[in-house]
């Protein structure tokens, strides 16, 4: 994808155990109909073959909507499925290697768990070849375990003053706090249970998307 989609709007991060009312594929399809901007396939428990099958299936669902599919952590799955990029954490493959392997057209995002993560990134790479930085977590959440203390709204605003890269907020994001997070400086809201566990994922996505329309 030579012309990358701007990092804005609702960013669905999948979690199959949280898909209470619909299959994962149906949640993704309904979120696409609701106007989701990005989908990240996150699979912590499944084997590589099933992960790849899921990725290909979701890619087929999202392609007609021109919605990018990102893969959590796994560059091999991203390449094999023809996905649009990867989301990396602090302990995953270094983002520089991901960029070298996937090329300039791939979307690559990096989670920051602390302000120190940001400082060390900028000290080594003043202009990192990343498409977005993720504040993780904004609020404490059960869907992300072993995380550092939450950034809070002040943390989002702080990062906004430090970088020109788009900011994706993840962790405890839902309809009740979404507007405040956007006002604090987030360009995109990454949500898990707010869409995956919704009885009507399309409506949930639409309601979150409205937070970006002032």
Tell me what the structure shows.
The protein is built from nine helices and eight strands. Helices cover 38% and strands 16% of the residues. Strands 1-2-3-4-5-6-7-8 form an eight-stranded parallel β-barrel, surrounded by seven helices. Helix 1 packs parallel to helix 2 and helix 2 (48-62) packs across helix 3. Strand 4 (85-88), helix 4 and strand 5 form a beta-alpha-beta unit. By secondary structure, it is of the alpha/beta class. This is Thiamine-phosphate synthase.
Give the class from helix and strand content and strand pairing. alpha/beta
Global Rg: 16 Å
- Please mark out the parts with pLDDT under 50 across 5 or more consecutive residues, or reply none: none
**Can you summarize the main beta sheet?**
8 strands, parallel, barrel
* Average of per-residue pLDDT values: 94
**Spatial order of the strands in the main sheet?**
1-2-3-4-5-6-7-8
How many strands appear in the DSSP assignment? 8
Number of helices: 9
Give the end-to-end Cα distance, rounded to a whole number of Å.
Answer: 29 Å
- β-strand percent reads 15-25%
Which second-level CATH architecture applies?
A: Alpha-Beta Barrel
Name given to the CATH homologous superfamily: Aldolase class I
Task: Quickly list its features.
alpha/beta; 214 residues; TIM Barrel; eight-stranded parallel β-barrel
In short:
Helices cover 38% and strands 16% of the residues. It is an alpha/beta fold and 214 residues long.
